[in-house]
Amino acid sequence: PRREEFAESTRYLTYQVGKLGIEVRLNTEATPRLIQQLNPDAVVMATGSTPHIPPIPGADGPNVLTTWQVLRGENTVGKRVVVMGGLEEHQAPLQLAEFLADRGSQVEVVSELMQVGQGIEPGTMHLLMKRILEKDIKLTNLTAVKAIQGSRLLTYNVFTKKEGAIEGVDTVVLALGNRANDSLYRSLKGQVKEIYAIGDCLAPRRVLHAVLEGSRAGRYI
């Protein structure tokens, strides 16, 4: 919600790539062998990241989804939803909670932080938190999930270690941040003349970091 304007960056850059006559290969897996056959002078890896799945029992359960699966509409989301925020301090857990609340779900965000969304810029946080509270989204801070047992989540306080549980959950959504998808970068290191990792392939962060690093790599080459 209210983030649609971010798609303008990809629309603009796609247009510029077409305008400049840059060759684009879609539906093509970039394997080490393919890249070596191209014999490039330089390779820039922008392979992004993948959702972080926590190493806890039940994280692979049938009622557990990632943020990406929810936003793509790949799975049905139940009425009672818990969004696991973990240590993700930016917008993903709260934005997803608002997205689900707008579609009729009762949402609780569980975060290990002092305050969920504590890394969000103050102006944005003020407006977002106002909407979150108006939509009766429950915020549970300083709480980690130790196991997902179907409709039951086993939790504990990150300071006191006091255990608890959240009952009657239809769907659990993981909004725990991402992990760099850098396996191709690692396999090509030392195999090509020059190689650079940019954006989430280097470390999952924000749009501005990816654009800046892409610009720097292009100018350096």
Keywords:
221 residues, alpha/beta, five-stranded parallel beta sheet, three-stranded antiparallel beta sheet, elongated
Description:
The chain is of the alpha/beta class and 221 residues long. Helix content is 31%, strand content 24%. The chain has helices at 7-19, 32-38, 67-71, 92-101, 122-134, 183-188, 207-220; strands at residues 43-45, 49-51, 64-66, 80-86, 106-111, 138-140, 143-149, 152-157, 163-166, 171-174, 178-180, 195-197. The strands form four sheets. A five-stranded parallel sheet has the order 3-10-4-5-6. The protein has a three-stranded antiparallel sheet with strand order 7-8-9, with no helix packed on it. The protein has a two-stranded parallel sheet with strand order 1-12. α4 (92-101) packs parallel to α5 (122-134). The relative contact order is 0.20. The model has no long low-confidence stretch (mean pLDDT 96).
Q: What's the structural blueprint in terms of helices and strands?
A:
Elements: H1 7-19, H2 32-38, E1 43-45, E2 49-51, E3 64-66, H3 67-71, E4 80-86, H4 92-101, E5 106-111, H5 122-134, E6 138-140, E7 143-149, E8 152-157, E9 163-166, E10 171-174, E11 178-180, H6 183-188, E12 195-197, H7 207-220
Helix pairs in contact: 4-5
Provide a compact summary of the structure:
The chain has 221 residues and is of the alpha/beta class.
H/E series: HHEEEHEHEHEEEEEEHEH
Uncertain regions spanning at least 5 consecutive residues = none
Rg over C-alpha atoms, rounded to the nearest angstrom: 20 Å
Strand percent estimate = 15-25%
Q: Describe the strand arrangement of the main beta sheet, using strand numbers.
A: 3-10-4-5-6
Q: What does the largest sheet look like?
A: 5 strands, parallel
Cα distance, first to last residue?
A: 38 Å
- Give the count of helical stretches: 7
Shape by Cα distribution: elongated
Report the structural category.
alpha/beta
Give the helix proportion (percent range): 25-40%
What number is the mean pLDDT? 96
Q: Strand tally, please?
A: 12
